[in-house]
Amino acid sequence: MKGSISHKQRLVIVDGMLCFVALLVVLQLWLFTATMESYLGGDQAIVWPAALVSLACLGLNAGLLYYLRKLDRSYEASDS
Amino acid sequence: MRSFPDGRSAEEQPRWRQDFPIDWSQDQYVSRRDLLAFLVVVSGGFSIGQLWIGWNSWRRKNDAFPRKALEGAAELQVGESLLFTYPDESERCLLVRTAPDNFVAFSQKCTHLACAVVPEPETNRFHCPCHSGYFDMQTGRPLAGPPRRPLPRIELDIEGERVYAVGVSLEHA
Lengths: 80, 173
Prior knowledge:
Chain A contains 2 helices and no strands. Chain A has 80 residues and is mainly α.
């Protein structure tokens, strides 16, 4: 029983992460199109700040994935 | 314990599901992680794209444009135009004499879908015949139709009767 509860809890955690990561990816998509549009229009001032924000989003996403893998490993270790 | 979508036990499931059993909760559990990993890869793709734009922007800033004499510019009458290539042979541009002492030059490539624009000196505009886009002849600014970005401006250096192309600017005049 304890295993099934923790499984459901993990499912909620994964769902939450999935929503958050999807939101960040949509933000990155918007950032990419806006940057490309302004770059092609001759405005190059926002190019590097936008790249930094996009990298920060990637870092956050990769961090969440790493955290999830770590969480899975710890649950697998406690189950066995 | 294996679970099934209708909540019934394994023995009560139809034959096809008994032959090919899938643990649905486990299946969903795995797909979420796969989707998450996929989204992180997509996120990495966008970041690489942003860095690519940054790299191109940096390269363009440091690019040295050649100085090219535009032969035949002195013979142009007001309202007439001259086709030339700049900065390389694949980039076609238009030089227009808008006044006895004034020239403007822009890339001929429409910023919508890269059709060739044609000058309309009587209305002081460039016209893109593909989708009826119009650009201002003095600034290259889009006036009508689908284009949203100005035409790249060719920077000119005028020395007496000689006209030289010296650079390309994407910014509004």
